[in-house]
Amino acid sequence: MNNFSKKSGNLDVSAWETPRLINHNAPSPAVSSSEMEARQEVYEQAFREGYEHGKELGLQEAEDQLRLIEELLAALRKPFDEQSRQLTEVLVQLAGRIARAIVARELESSPETLLSMVQQSLSLLENSEQDVFIHLNPHTAQTLRSLISDREVARNWQIVDDPHVSLEDFRIRCQDSIVDADLDARIRLVVNQVLDQKPDTKEV
Q1: What topology does CATH give the domain 71-190?
Q2: Which of 31, 93, 138, 186 is geometrically suited to a Cys-Cys bond with 161, CB 3.0 to 4.6 A?
Q3: How many CB atoms lie within 10 A of CB 164?
Q4: Splitting the chain (204 residues) into consecutive groups of 10 residues, what average pLDDT does each group show?
Q5: Residue ranges of the domains in the chain?
Q6: What is the Cα–Cα distance from 90 to 48, expressed in whole angstroms?
Q7: Phi then psi for 53, rounded to 5 degrees?
Q8: Residue from 176, 198, 180 nearest 189 by CA
Q9: 25: helix, coil or strand?
Q10: Nearest Cα to 170, choosing from 204, 136, 126?
């Protein structure tokens, strides 16, 4: 211990210094290989746990973001779905008016068209040999009767006057099934099929 002494009268006064408990110049204690391995293992374990935890948080955040995007897209699609539905309805009504005008003119100029339409519908029946009942508007029914009066193919046809059926429509029923040749229904089916078709895309 270094002391600084000076005399003050008859007394010796010394300056006291705090003793050094740590020698900075002393070499660090040696660390064994097992201790190093233990430290490394603890470090790697902590790293793995932190990585897995971070990955889980990242995946959860990604799922939340994806769910939010899907909800936003669904909300954006609603107005377009409604517009598509309205467009389909307008197209069906327009096509219906045009088709009815064409069919009415065709039936007026060529009554044989009615017979052809009925025969095509009859081909959809599983058993057309049994008695079939053909419901038509009274005016159209009269036309069909005149067309089949001398035809053997119509021997099992029963023509039914039905004022609820439009001039361009007819309904066929037998014991097992019914064929409803409603023009509006057929037009709606065709329009929906056309709108559902997606154009083929080719890479240039």
Answers
A1: hypothetical protein PF0899 fold (3.30.2320)
A2: 138
A3: 8
A4: 50 55 55 70 71 71 78 73 75 75 78 84 73 90 86 81 88 82 73 61 41
A5: 71-190
A6: 62
A7: -65, -45
A8: 180
A9: coil
A10: 136
Q: Are 159 and 144 in contact (CB under 8 A)?
A: yes
Q: Give burial (CB, 10 Å; 0-12/13-18/19+) of 155.
A: exposed
Instruction: Tell me how far CA of residue 193 lies from CA of 129, 133, 145, 181, in angstroms.
Output: 32, 30, 35, 18
**Token representation of residue 188:** 């709606």
- What is the pLDDT at residue 14? 56
- The helix or strand, by DSSP H or E, that contains position 166, with its residue range, turns out to be none
pLDDT score of 203: 42
Distance CA 103, CA 77 (A): 38
Q: How many CB atoms lie within 10 A of CB 168?
A: 22
